[in-house]
Amino acid sequence: MTVNCSSPLSAQLSNRDGRWRLYVCCWGASQWPEHDFGPTATAPTLAERSRALTSLGFAFIDGAEWEWTEDSETLDDDTSPVLLLASIRVCSRDGGQP
């Protein structure tokens, strides 16, 4: 499901210790909506991410695509484990703020 949106937010997917988590960055909120995919060896599929986002009350913005980046667990240490992060623009399913 995709929506047009006047107040886009960022949903992010991260992996730590073999667990993938999807969360929506709601600045100013005391707790961000999140979904834990549990332990898994591979990243959640596009369909799994979409279902998780829908269950949190959000949808992808029309035309949005996942953007992947990597970071290091320890800043400025090139031997540090790599962390994969993904983000996509989303909006609440009714088109407003969460």
Our measurement of the CA-to-CA distance between the termini, rounded to an integer number of angstroms, reads 17 Å
The 3D shape can be described as globular
Oligomer: single chain
Could you give the count of β-strands? 7
Structural class estimated from helices and strands? mainly beta
Task: Give an overview in words.
The structure is a single chain. It is globular, with a radius of gyration of 14 Å. The chain is mainly beta. Helices cover 10% and strands 45% of the residues. The longest helix is centred in the middle third of the chain and has 10 residues, at 46-55. The relative contact order is 0.32.
Summarize the topology.
Blueprint: E1 2-3, E2 9-16, E3 19-25, E4 34-39, H1 46-55, E5 58-61, E6 67-72, E7 82-92
Parallel strand pairs: 1-5
Antiparallel strand pairs: 2-3, 2-7, 3-4, 5-7, 6-7
